[in-house]
Design a protein that fits this description.
This is Rab-GAP/TBC domain protein. One of its GO terms (cellular component) is mitotic spindle pole body. Pfam families: RabGAP-TBC. It comes from Cordyceps fumosorosea (strain ARSEF 2679) (Isaria fumosorosea). With 494 residues, the chain is mostly helical. Among the domains are: 56 residues, no CATH class; 112 residues, putative rabgap domain of human tbc1 domain family member 14 like domains (Helicase, Ruva Protein, domain 3); 135 residues, Orthogonal Bundle (Cyclin A, domain 1), CATH 1.10.472. 55% of the residues lie in helices and 0% in strands.
């Protein structure tokens, strides 16, 4: 709003004066003649008078119109949908996945809001629905308190847990990733992000010499497939092409292929060894009592999903073999190389993601990806039945339009800095939430899909990612889907 000399000269104290001085005291006033005020000046004075009266009323009531927490949220440019989510910290298998980013305002503050909504405050029907869902469940909910909540994310990662409280430090780090985000530049670069990812993915410490040893082994059995994919990795993203070379991507994928190949051979040898020991008349004469080799899923993931017993009880001969390389892994590896400060760090994080979180994505038939695509259709039918029926009538199943988004955790959709922010959220509370993030993108673009005569053209390329909006809508979707569907989402990539 532009200012005029008359506006700058007006002060709240002068406006609050009940009446003008009597005529007999005019000699005390300035004798300089002033031009008569314009209607614009009167409008400005009325606005200032209104603001002063409103402020005085709030001061007399002993409260502020905006609580300090909401003021901080406004400075962080929080999304309107974030206030719609509720805090849920006890629901398994994901204790804090549905946690709210901004808590509900106290009832006293809500009663003070008498201003009618302007047209600029209007939100889309989808956003209104998310707000309504959250408002129905947020009564009496406050922001959770964590043992390391007084520390910044950088302090938690750098200094580690206090008094050996690893669980408390991890929960505090997860919350801060969602609530505050990882500080980064406009291009997504951050000196902290890769270490946050390594911690959240539970990636083991790996000496650089181990990575170099894999590089010096030369071409892996999947080298030809790798070279056929690397030259077309994020070719339209100038940020990635400027920072990451194709040679670096080839080395990383080749090293991961070697490590996965070795794990596959160990599985085969272990399966054959156990089978030979269990045969009648074996030369050893002993039953197989050795524990099976460790599988890809992490202990934390198994405890959340309840899949540990079934995995450990499966026979080695019937267990699926680990994959080595599938098309699309190049795009999945690209954000790691972009965010990491060395290829060794990128390798450790990328390998942990493949073997612990999404091992079924890289097996021969990519069974995990196809299960995820089926879940996209199921979740969409629950969240937005009209949109799901519209796509089904057009013959558009998720297998047709969402395959790259499921396989690459939405890394195939630019811009890359938004991909990094979305991955912060996925790694904090589980990459399986990517299924819900895809549904969130569909609901965001639902109007365009419903109005298009050919939705297939719309779905060929999703709109640019908006990580904050997608996270907010995803948190709202979590509370809408049934427990059995959510349980299938958690284990679909194992």
């Amino acid at each position: 709003m532009t200012t005029s000399p008359s506006r700058e000269g007006a002060s709240p104290a002068a406006i609050a004066t009940p009446s003008l001085p009597p005529p007999q005291h005019n000699s005390l006033l300035h004798t300089d003649l002033q031009p008569p005020p314009s209607p614009r000046t009167h409008r400005a004075l009325r606005r200032l008078q209104s603001a002063h009266t409103l402020g005085a009323k709030a001061a007399s009531q002993g409260g502020s119109l905006i609580s300090p927490h909401y003021r901080d949220a406004l400075h962080r440019n929080a999304s309107p949908v974030r206030a719609a989510a509720t805090t849920t910290t006890t629901t398994p298998p994901l204790p804090a996945a549905a946690a709210a980013v901004v808590p509900a305002a106290p009832a006293q503050q809500q009663q003070q809001r008498h201003r009618g909504r302007a047209n600029s405050d209007a939100i889309s029907p989808m956003m209104h629905q998310m707000n309504a869902v959250g408002a129905a469940r947020r009564s009496g909910v406050s922001k959770p308190v964590f043992s390391h909540g007084h520390l910044s994310l950088q302090q938690i990662i750098r200094e580690g847990p206090n008094d050996g409280d690893f669980i408390g430090a991890l929960e505090s780090a997860r919350w801060k990733v969602v609530d505050e985000g990882v500080k980064s530049a406009e291009d997504g670069m951050s000196t902290l992000r890769i270490y946050v990812w390594l911690v959240l993915l539970d990636a083991p410490i790996m000496p650089t010499d181990d990575y170099l040893a894999l590089i010096h082994r030369g071409a892996s059995p999947a080298y030809a497939k790798i070279r056929n994919d690397t030259f077309r990795t994020l070719t339209t993203d100038p940020l990635f092409r400027r920072r990451v070379s194709e040679a670096s991507l080839i080395r990383l994928l080749n090293a991961v292929a070697w490590r996965l190949h070795d794990a596959r051979e160990e599985e085969r040898v272990a399966g054959g060894f156990d089978t030979a020991l269990s045969r009648p008349g074996s030369r050893s004469g002993r039953s197989s009592s050795r524990p099976p080799p460790q599988r890809g899923a992490s202990t934390t993931r198994e405890s959340l999903t309840g899949a540990a017993g079934s995995a450990s009880g499966a026979s080695r001969s019937g267990a699926p073999e680990p994959g080595t390389y599938v098309q699309g892994m190049n795009v999945l590896a690209a954000p790691f190389l972009y965010a990491a400060r060395s290829e060794g760090e990128a390798f450790a994080a990328f390998h942990a993601l493949l073997t612990r979180e999404v091992p079924a994505y890289i097996r021969g038939a990519m069974t995990g990806v196809h299960r995820g695509l089926a879940l996209v259709d199921r979740v969409l039918a629950v969240v937005d039945p009209r949109l799901a029926m519209h796509l089904a009538a057009k013959g558009l199943a998720a297998e047709i339009y969402a395959f790259p988004s499921v396989l690459t955790l939405c890394a195939c959709t630019p811009p890359l800095p938004e991909v990094l922010k979305l991955w912060d959220f996925l790694f904090a509370y589980g990459p399986h939430l990517n299924i819900l993030c895809i549904v969130a993108q569909l609901t965001i673009m639902r109007a365009q899909i419903l109005q298009s005569p050919s939705p297939n053209k719309v779905l060929r390329s999703f709109p640019p990612l908006n990580a904050d909006l997608i996270k907010s809508v995803t948190i709202g979707i979590i509370k809408q889907i049934p427990d059995d569907v959510y349980a299938d989402i958690v284990v679909h990539a194992q």
